[in-house]
Specification:
The chain is of the alpha/beta class. Helix content is 37%, strand content 23%. It is built from five helices and five strands. The protein has a three-stranded parallel sheet, with no helix packed on it. A two-stranded antiparallel sheet has the order 1-2. Helix 3 runs parallel beside helix 4. 15% of the residues are buried.
């Protein structure tokens, strides 16, 4: 969010588990309290990346976010990738958007990480 502020870009955050909740931030200076509240939300249930990537794909399809990058912060303990999700990721890549991963945990599903342009691991 701070990097998008410095470069005068918008930031769209998708919080996910098996559902998604989103927040658009246009100015970090005025949106910081809202961002803090948003990031403190917790979900119950599993972790399904598909709805979040579908939403990200739809956002990237708009003029405001065309060619935007996606940063996924997760333990990457996802289920087997569906053909629909593979298609969504291919669409994101066709739009010249990059996918980056910040991985927490020790058992990430490498099928997903192989689709990322760059991965960082945090123990």
């Amino acid at each position: 969010a701070m990097l998008t502020e410095k470069t005068h870009r918008k930031c769209y955050i998708i919080n996910f588990s098996d559902q998604t909740i989103s927040l658009a931030i246009e100015e970090l200076s005025t949106g910081l309290p809202k961002l803090a509240d948003f990031l403190n939300q917790r979900f119950e249930g599993g972790t399904d990346i598909a709805p979040a990537l579908e939403e990200a794909s739809n956002i990237i399809d708009t003029n405001e976010f065309r060619h935007s990058d996606i940063v996924i912060i997760s333990d990457f303990e996802f289920t087997q990738m569906s053909s629909q999700l593979e298609h969504t990721i291919a669409t994101i890549k066709e739009r010249q958007s990059s996918i980056y991963a910040l991985v927490f945990g020790k058992r990430p599903e490498h099928q997903y990480l192989e689709l990322c342009d760059e991965c960082w691991y945090y123990d």
